Amino acid sequence: MDNQLYLSSSPHIHSGETTDKVMRMVIYALLPACAVSIYFFGLPALSVLLICTLGCVAAEAICCKMMGRKMTLADGSAALTGILLALNLPPSAPWWMSLFGAFIAILIGKQVYGGLGYNPFNPALVARVVLLISFPVQMTTWTAPAPIGSGLDAVTTATPLGEMKTAVMLTGKLPELATSGFGNYLTGNMGGCLGEVSALALLAGGLYLLYKKIITWHTPVSFAGTVIVIGGIFWMIDPTKYPSPLFHLLTGGLILGVFFMATDMVSSPVTDKGMLIFGFGCGLITVLIRLFGGYPEGVSFAILLMNAATPLIDRYTRPKIFGQIEQEAKS
Amino acid sequence: MKLKTFPGGLHPPDGKHYSANSPIESCPLPDELVIPMSQHIGAPAAACVAVGDQVKKGQVIADAKGFVSVPIHASTSGEVIAVEPRLHPTGKALPAVVIRPDGEDRWDESLQGADPANLSADELKDRIRAAGIVGMGGATFPTHVKLSPPEEKKIDTLIINGVECEPFLTADHRLMLEQSERLLDGIDILRKVLGLERTIIGIEANKPDAIAKLTQAGAARNIEVQALEVKYPQGAEKQLIDALTGRQVPSGTLPMEVGVVVQNVGTAAAVSDAIRHGHPLVERVATVTGPGVHTPKNLLIRIGTPLRHMVEQCGGLNGDPAKIIMGGPMMGQTQLSLDIPAIRGTSGLLIFRREDLPKRLEAGPCIRCGRCIGVCPIHLQPTTIAAYARLDMIAEAEEYHALDCIECGCCTYICPATLPLVQSIRHAKGGIMAKKRTI
Amino acid sequence: MLAAVLSLGGIGLVAAAALGIAAKKFAVEVDPREAAILEILPGANCGACGLPGCSGYAKGVVDGSIAPNLCTPGGSDTVEKIAHILGVEAITAEPKVAVVFCQGDNSKAAEKYRYLGLQDCNAAQKIADGPKACPGGCLGLGTCERVCPFGAIEITAEGLAVISRAKCTGCEKCVGVCPRKVIRMAPLEATTHVLCNSHDKGALVRKYCQVGCIACTICKKNAPEAYQIENFLAEVVYEHHSEAAGVLEKCPTKCIRDFATGYPEGSSFAPPTVPVKPAQID
User: Fold this and answer.
1) Closest listed residue to residue C140, CA positions, set C129, C149, C128, C130
2) CA A285 to CA A313: how far, in whole Å?
3) How many other CB atoms are found less than 10 A from the CB of residue C255?
4) What is the rounded CA–CA span in Å between residue B61 and residue B55?
5) Closest CA of chain B from A272, distance in Å
6) What value of ipTM does the predicted structure carry?
7) Which residues pair with B79 in a beta bridge?
């Protein structure tokens, strides 16, 4: 039957790469970090993860229903936002705060702009910053890691970055922990958000994404590189006052930010050159906030600020089209 | 050694194994040849025969109208049984001459071959035009126009396009392998017309046998053969020139701007026939392939052969066809039925079954992954142009260089949101051209 | 404390002065009539007048570069008010609405192929002249719906454009974008239309559409004044539209519709409860 034929515009084949596959890959890449955080922080970490993820999915479903949009749960973006949000919260975060954050992320961070693809800011970071401002106490109460089976009790502690800030403010000198204990920072044996703890697990996830070509090297290299270079310059100026680049790299949310937050496709530039500029901006702002700002950690603010600059960066990094060079030279 | 190529592009599954090893086979005459009057870019030809006329193979059945136009010839001897609109590969009913072959396949005796050495460049060009030769890579631009650059443009290089970067197609590959003498002779004639020496044949590295054969045969004639990286769209004219000569054709201009003329291998071979034997373009090699064809083959077909007849020569259909594509999977045109005839630009016939089509997904929102920008050989921002096109913001689309799009399909192929980017850009291009016309 | 109050107050004063000077210096003279007319215009910026927006039209009307009766969405009311402001006589046009001359949705009209790709009528039309087998039938991909500034067009679940006679203001935007020219303007007072756009012969129409006009001439035989048949397609003669509704039941393919009694199948638009308002012709 001829009328059973499909007609369409070329091309007639497709790579098979789809949005939900991309989202799924990023979720896979985050699983090691989730596992490590559960190992160190136990049940509270698991509950934060679950509440955030389910909360985001529920918020997305409600939004789609209320706004009469097509149900978009299948693309996995809401679940991903939930996991990223959880990784940006302390393990002691109360359930209502996680849930509130999840709704903020989806509602204020994403759906009000028109849903996936239209949000100018990273939704998880929007929620984190809203929570940080609204609930400063809960958001900065950290528990020391108590690995499963270690028999340790969860005790309140500070993050390395927080302790550094306090020490520098009080004494003008770096504390002991800024120059030692890097092995713990690498594996995640320190206080912090779920996703701030294990540099190794995050690195593994990040490399997986690079290998799978979900993200390109531009943003991570430029972001981390800028932190190392700028942090390094200050360190060389006064190593008693400013921490080493390695400390910058391994503590706080830098690795999470570098591989998973700054590379969020929707809210970052589209061209290679744009990503390099974006990464540089993120790195610069992060170091400045960490060393001179009021907050101990600056990754979220840095990324959000650069998100705001994304349209501008895109505008000024438009690729030069094939055959344009000669034309300009001629005219 | 790093092979030459261009920036951007991608690697679709090549599908050439279906037919790469099957030698060119002559397709028998069908019961009816439907020869459309519009088989080239430019003004359609005007039929000059009437129902009931007896025609001979190679006889002119339609005259060229204007400079950018070529005459059309009978593909075999027989009787004209209809001059009427018939379904054309564009999906519209367009004027065509229908011939019932008499089976004798007699050439028109008035067609005389000549030794190119005794003809001037202009005489050669006239013969090429009279033979109805057009670009056989698929664009079907009249060859004589390409061979007539304005005085002030100095042409120093002839590029012969044997890249065949479209997946599934192997017609050019087989032609290079089996008819290299014909091809090289055509190249010599083209060189004489253009008055130049430097000739490069560009071939993708996935055809080592063709590269070896032509390198050897071309050496004596001072023809260079260059292996190119296997990457789509390596055979796009401007990308090919960039890869082979390092010259970028300025946006909005033709290759002659950088002193280059590009001809497809099939075109060069047809030029040889036209001069040596006086034979016009009445047949061509086309690949009949795809999982929907029983035994994929490379066929030598008459212009006007219905697609159904071609499929029958290849053991018929394999399963129910879901998409009939004239050309390759990246840039080919879908067809309404197998009753449509093959024309001069038909480089292949590709048939997909339902299960071979990409999973049907509703196009989602752009997630700004930027992949379309990375693969675009022109370095456009396809998603931006497409977004403007959807909003009918034609001026903005033009500012983002929509007109430079070569419609290669890379962006649509890679898009994870499965957006029909090329189609949107085409829409924008149509809008821009319409606007230009009204001004 | 005092220093803070003074400095802030000072900044405020300087800024206020700067603003005041700027307002005086860069003030643009506006004809008060222009503002008054802009007030009256519907503000949809639909472009029916030929200018990009209402403010442009208001300006044009005041400086006399464009006629004052071109705002079809505003209707005769607006035209009269504008005329009043300008002190000229109102020449109102007969109100018109856009009508989709097709009822062949996906359940009633055949497709010659299945279309994949951009959900836009103009894009689909470029591929083998569109998927609908009927060369004139509505493609139902919603290009008209998207350009309508008044939300007067809906696409039914079965893929047919339907225009609300209550919401349509006659701006003709949809008429311009339809690749198949299936939307045309008709007098608002005429409610009966032959909803078919195929000029093919009856036998062919029957092959691809259950509700197409087959040019059987029954309508013309029963109401000779009200119908004319041209090129195998019947149409209502609008001067005699009042007689057209009488033959609705006699049409064998039911392609004649009286909008006073209902919209095509699948539409959410309700027919007017009171008879459509009479034409406003002075």
Assistant:
1) C130
2) 16
3) 25
4) 8
5) 8
6) 0.90
7) B54, B100
